[in-house]
Amino acid sequence: SSTPFSTSSDRAIFMRLSTQNDMVPTIPFNIPHSIESARLWNALNRDSGDARAVVRDDVKLMAQAVHESIPFILTEDASTLYKYCERLRNTGVIHTRAIKLADGFDSSALREDGQSGFGLESPEFDDE
After folding, report:
1. Is-contact 72 97, C-beta < 8 A?
2. Helices (H), the chain
């Protein structure tokens, strides 16, 4: 199968919605993505208040991430993309995680366990 990534570490590219940044890597939406999209749509259980077109586009992004083995999606969209990605992940349908940027970014979100430190204070050094 053809993939736009040259190494496995390249699969960790962050997917991000952007209409103004030409430097954001893009992945063309192909038949395998559409098949995955249909699977996710059928498992989704969309909330009635969410616009169908918006959720459909979010499902396409999730399907691409799942098919390309991208472990997480960074998003400022807490109302649909984050909500539905986490819903599908929590029910075991997908493994891709959504990282919500609306509240700021914490690099611990990139860790599977969410650990943000060791909980130890920095030692003080004397200049003696």
Report:
1. yes
2. 31-44, 52-67, 81-90
Please choose, from the candidates 69, 73, 101, the residue with its C-alpha nearest in 3D space to the C-alpha of residue 5: 69
Q: End-to-end CA distance of the chain, in Å?
A: 62
Instruction: Name the pTM for this structure.
Output: 0.67
**Which of 36, 91, 92 minimizes the C-alpha distance to 61?**
36
Closest CA to 15 of 74, 76, 89: 74
**How far is it, in rounded angstroms, from Cα 97 to Cα 88?**
9
Task: Identify which has the larger pLDDT, 100 or 102.
Answer: 100
pLDDT bin (cut points 50, 70, 90) of residue 40 is very high
Alpha carbon 40 to chain centroid distance? 14
Taking residue 60's Cβ as centre, other Cβ atoms within 10 Å add up to: 17
